[in-house]
Design a protein that fits this description.
The strands form 4 sheets. Strands 6, 7, 8, 10, 11, 12, 13, 14 and 15 form a 9-stranded parallel beta sheet that branches. This protein is of the alpha/beta class. It contains 23 helices and 16 strands.
Amino acid sequence: MDFKREASPIEHSNDTDLSKRARLASPGPDIQPANVERGVAKIKPEYVLPKQGREEQNDRPRQRGQNKARKFTKVHDTVKLCDAVKDTVSSCPLGDKCRFEHDLNIYIAAKPEDLPGDCPVYAALGRCPAGIKCRWLHSHFDKSTMKLTTDETKIKASEGAQELNKISRDVQFQLQKKKVATPKSDIVIPILDFERDSNDAGSKDYKQNTRAEYTESRIDISEKKPFDLRGKKILSPLTTVGNLPFRRLCRTFGADVTYSEMALALPILQGHKGEWALPRTHTDEVGGFGVQIAASKPWQATKATEILAEQCEELSEINLNCGCPIDLIYRSGAGSALLDSHAKLERMLRGMNAVSGAVPITVKIRMGTKDNHPTALKLVSRLSAAGDVAAITLHGRSRAQRYSRLADWDYISQTAKIARSAAINVQESTSAADNRSRAQERPWFIGNGDCYTWQDWWDGIDKYGCDSVMVARGALIKPWIFEEIDQRRYIDKSATERLDMIKKFANLGLEHWGSDEYGINNTRRFLCEYLSFSCRYVPIGILEVLPPRIQDRPPRWRGRSELETLLGSSDSRDWVKISEMVLGPVHDSFDFIPKHKSNAYESDV
């Protein structure tokens, strides 16, 4: 890949004529002028709205903090149809003993009126898995024969497009009963325990003893899959919003690598249905999909890794989360708590690598747990030398920072150099046979933190020496950032294009969660979660100074159209209104509670 920096024009999409894009020269350099107030996005004067006091806005003080006890209502049909007959072909094996409805006429009569338009799932796949339960039933149902219809042409065109990494009910049941065998882990875990006990005892010879134990146990660590993250556009693991439909959306804009939401190792081992939904992927992600797990003990991480590698047919890597700052995770000894236990973390990764078969093991860390006391340099040196991980991602913040203040890219750059030099030292000290056995000379080093523009991404490679840059919140705010990275220019998406993108997400959500009442409700909920981030986007065309920065907040502004203004609203009521534009009217019981209390009140715009 050619990493040479090019000029930075803006690609602007006009609402009135999307086919004609005017390419404008960028008015600003890589660094904003000194007279620009830090933390403030400077808006062109014609789009800035007058300031208002809190009393004028809502006549009440602004709420702060998070709604931590959010609950979401699950919407179900009034008459509950048996799943066995929803396709009008199968019959229920339980017969009269089944407590659900089997009469299609009774169910259809009780259903709410169909939503207008065609079923998005049927339009994409040529069939609708929701069957009779679909809210767009009229588009694929013959009332005269009471049969569902299919489009064989579309079915053939979509052949092969499916969700992967689904665990069978039988395996899930066996996990719940603790009957799934983990033969590799059963050999490795005692050795990891031996390492721990020897280290605690202060034995100088514990490393030699452990190597002997490995040899005697005849552990055969398979050669890993080819693994290359150099110059790849990477979407970070994201809580809640990093679901399968959002990842597929980012793929359409050019993301090369995506990750599951963080899954907890212990619930994975216990066969929890919700946790096993997280490793699911789609054929769109094949070749660049990793599952991220969190664990507090080496045995948990080792066993979860073995089971994931065995049960999931499509995995490019298994990533260990060592950066999650959430109190619940930290206090359990997982996430960023591992940054204070380097020896334990090394054992954990060594165990994961030993049982993962051909699947590479990677790790994501932070600078450390405390401000002004970074430990990542030392940790990365150790991990690079150990040779158990294929990639290391460093988020340039401490656990104490959470997401406040800017990420420290100078520290990321120093750590990147350490990763390279540590690997070189290992190469020089090991034999030629050992070197030949390693599929990769050193772990790929990925920078992470505040990447919001194509310039930020390329700086991470050209200026700070990373192999690639992981994009997190920047992708939540504007998923087309991967498109900008490819083209090395800002793309001023019009409001109409952005609404089409929202509709695309909704359609992908219906494919994933279903086009019945339950699936629409789920899709709407996660769409509102996504809109809580995308509303932060300030259109490039109304900015007075470039480049934009992820931490900057604009004054009150209006868009170039009513739709653009609506898409920029931070009022959760407006997010629900936008969802109605693509998913139809909300159900009476639907009530979206935003994560942040400040978004729960009416907007003043």
